[in-house]
Each structure stands twice: as C-alpha cells, then as structure tokens.
C-alpha cells in the first residue's frame, strides 16, 4: 500500500504542467481553438470601443468611390482614366502628402490618351502609391496583356510611383485582424499597400525595412521601419489596431474632389456650378482638408450593388454588421504605425507561465474543496464549478482591461488549462478513493474473469445474492480416467500437471469471452452470456471447445516428450435459459449459473463416455451454430430426472475459417 502514496505537491505540479502543455499547444496549433482565441480579441476591441473624434484628428482620409459619386458623374462606370488624373492633380494641389489608389487598373482605357494623361499625372505628383496583386495572365478582348512585373496594374512602373500589394490577410474565421508588411512575387519582394504608403510618408526605401525574429521565448520579434519598431503578432504580421467599426475614418466622396471649375457634374449641368473642390467659400481646397494628409482612394460601394464591392469582416461590430471596406482596413493598418498605437501580446514563455499558474491554482482549489468532505458529495463539485466560473470570469475581465492598455493576454489557453487540471483533480481524487478497490480487483482477477470484476466495481447493483434469468450457453469438461492416473503418481506431480492443464484451458475460455465459473477436481465449468451479454454466446462456446481440444493436443505432444501421462478431455455444451448471479453468503459469494439447462450441460459431458466422443452439444446449441460447424448426429437421449428426449450432436470441426468466425463475432 505504501507504493500508492504520492507527494501531493509533486502531483499538483505534474498535473498542472501536463494540463498547461495540453492547453497551450492545442490553442497554438488547432485552428478551431485559435479561432476562438481570436474571437475573444474581437470582443476586446468592442469592449474598448471607438476612439473619440477620430475622424477629425487622423492624418488619414478616405476618398471614396461611393454611390453619390456614381450618381453625379456625367459618365457611367467604368470611368475614363482622365477622372483619376484629375483626382491626382487636385489632391497634389491640395497638399496631400501621399496619394494611394486601392484600385486595380488591370486593363487599358478605351482611349489611350486617357491612360497617358493619368500616367503623366502620377509622374508629376511623385507621391502616388498604386495597388498591385499577384501576377497572372489576364485576357482582355481576345488578347493577352503581359503582366510580368506589373502586378495586374498597367500603371505600375510609372516613374515617381510605388507599388503596394493590396491583398489583406484573413484569419481562420475569415476576419481581417493582421497585416502583412511584405509579399514575395516571383523572385521579387514587394511592400504591402500599407507599408508602401508608410515608406512614402516617411520618405524611406524598401531596404530600410528589417525583420527581427524573437531571440528568446521571453520576447516577441518586431519589424523595423526606419526608427519605428512594429511588434509582431506572429512571424509574418502585425496586428491592426482598429480605431473603430466601419466609418470611423473620414470619408470624402470621389466626386467632391473631382468637382472643380473645369469639371461638370450631372447636377451642375442642370442647376449650375457648385465646385465642391475649389469653391473659395466652402471648397475642400481652401479648407486645407488634405494638407499633409495620407489620402487613400478606394471603393465604398456595397458588393451587392456593384462589382466594385470590397467589403471584408473585421473585429468591430456596428449595427449588427462587422463588414468594412477594404480601403478603410488599409487605413487602419497605416494608422496603427503612424500613431504608434501598437498592440503587444505576451511572449510565448510568459503566456505559458500564465497558463501554468492558472492551472495550478485550479487544481489546488479543486482538491482542497473536496477535502472538506461536504455532504452530499455533489456540493463539493458544485462549489468547484462556481469557483471556476468566477475564476474564469475575473480573468476574462482582467484581460479586457489590459487590452485598453494595448496588451493581449491569453484567454482561452488559461481557461483550458484550468479545465484540464480540474479534470486532473477529479482523476486524482478518484485514484485516492479507489486505490483499495484496485487492490481488491487485482486479487479477484485470479479467480474470476476481469470483466466480471470490472462490472462488480463499476456497477454495484450487480453485487446481490439474487440473480436474473437469461438465455446463455454453459460448458462442462472432465478428464478421462484421471482418478486412475492420479493414483499412479505423487500428489505434487499431479498438482503441477493439472495446474498446467487448467492454466491453458482458462486462457482459451477468456480468449473467447467466456466466464470461468469454477474448478471441481479435474473438471471445470464456464459459461457465456454474463456478465457481458454476447448474442453469439453459443458460437463462442463451441469455438472455445474445439480450441481447448486443440491446445490439449499440443500439451500431450509436450508431455509425451517429457515422459508425463497424457490427459484426454470430455466436453458437454448446452444452450438455454439459466439463472445467473451471485450465490453465497456473508463474506463469500460465487458468480455462477443454475437451472435445468445447466444440469443438461453437465449430463452431456458424461454422455461422451457412452458414445466414445470428445465434444457433445445439445439440439438447442445446434440450432444456434449449425451454419458454422461440422457435426455428427448421435441420436436422442433422456437424461436423468427428465422424461422428454433431447437430440445430441458430436461437434467435429468448423465449416469456415476460424478467422472469419472471429470477424463475425466482433
């Protein structure tokens, strides 16, 4: 019993360590759980709320191709490139520091002069970022446009402009939370759209961007842009610190920037000039709206209304929707760096230590509450569950508060660690309370089949003196002339050979799912159908009998070489209704079967003497197994105490391969 005693502190540390590892690794490497952790990040964003007066204070503006612009433009979509040329010139005139097009110009204008005008405007401005995508061949009007090094934008390569890849990374659940700084296209490294804007804003080159991986588990890596260090969320991305839901940035209609003295909108054709851009009294040009600002131009058209639609899921929810235009996602990524509002997450080792401490406290509390021995027992578990709920709730609340300080604490992995060690505490408590029962089980296994022991321990209702009636199959064996043999040899010799015989036969019985009832001298009794019920109990018993004779033949060959006497066995098998259960008195019981069907099985074993056979089965067993075994009909007999005759059969062999029979039984 001393071997079962354990140092509680060591158990607590071991269980907590294992639970922490399971929790930490599953959240790190199972996408579904990673997705749950990311969902808690969304909740934290919404709990933190929107940055106040952000539209007025931000250095980033969005010029939107919106429904108003489409309605007021004198030309239907797609617009001529001359519109974009005018936008560039007007924004440059208004003092925009960077002009970024989140638009793919992947096909030529119907009028080549418009493309030339746009290209010239880009070159003159000197601060334009053009959107690119991964290179693919694209068919236009039956011909192939060469897209090598053009990133699906025919204006990339224009002097004094820079390309930026506009693909936005989506997480496991489709939400855009992270931002990729650089992309590899072919053999060339290109900046992402946001990074290209930042490089232009700070007047830097792509070779001024560095990637610093984490040097130790106590830290996270970072990207360096000039003298700005951007904390990594993972090896390839930074986390976008969203200012708020869709519409947090200031949106200005494309048509309002386009509408100067030289441009006529539909309204102006009908009602006269408005000139929202350069009107001296209220025009955007004179209000210094764009002065030293980053201007991102892109679509703000719902996807269901136009092919321009560019709506993607983000963490923030507004009016029950978490969709945001791609142009504003880029704006949020850029603003994260410009404002230095970086969200940092705990380094891997620190995250693991948090999970470990969380798990250890859960284990210690759970085990100590059970030591109170509260009655009824469920009260202890109820207290444990209430503690865990409170514990988890406080941790989640704390992690939400820390997010306001731009720190991400792990949420799901500590909870999983706590649950894991709670389960571990249940297992530990079970082990402590049941250790004596395991000792009893080990002792009983020498006398009855382990399945019986397992059922007696796991289901106390079985342990009763009464029994139940069910259809089963019983097997009786006896040895030929064993009394004569035993008189010719010393008792210890007979004991040893009988032990070897019983050990072999018992193994065969257990192999085929039988329950050993008892040894009676040189005879043994087994049955099938209890405590675990097999519908094919008769098939198992017959297969077992043949296997027993086969194993006895192997023993005889061995004994003959050793100069020992040769033993021969008779078997009787019967199927029918029997009463099975625990029979006995105080302090001692036997799991056995009784009834007329059992008595018939015993009689059949003895009948082998009259017919000179080895295995006899009754007509009731035969009816169950006739399709699987080769038999010989012996006739009908009337057993002692009965008036009705019973047909009996000699069991000879299997009709099909034993492997197939085993497959049928399984």
Overall pLDDT confidence: 86
Separate helix tally: 20
Largest sheet data:
8 strands, mixed
What gross morphology would you assign? elongated
| Number of E-type strands | 27
Give the uncertain stretches in residue-range form: 1-5, 136-149, 460-465
Strand content: 15-25%
Helical percentage: 40-55%
Distance between the termini: 38 Å
Write structural notes for this entry.
With 666 residues, the chain is of the alpha/beta class. The protein has three domains: 2-28 and 346-441, no CATH class; 53-204 and 238-343, no CATH class; 463-665, 2-Layer Sandwich (Alpha-Beta Plaits). It is 43% helix and 22% strand. The protein is built from 20 helices and 27 strands. Strands 20, 21, 22, 23, 24, 25, 26 and 27 form an eight-stranded mixed sheet that branches. Strands 6-3-2-15-1-14 form a six-stranded parallel sheet, with helices on both faces. A hairpin with a 2-residue loop joins strand 11 (222-225) and strand 12. It is elongated and about 130 Å long. It starts with 7 loop residues before the first helix and ends with a helix. Residues 473-605 form the Guanylate cyclase domain. It is found in: Cell envelope. Keywords: Cell membrane, Membrane, Transmembrane, Transmembrane helix.
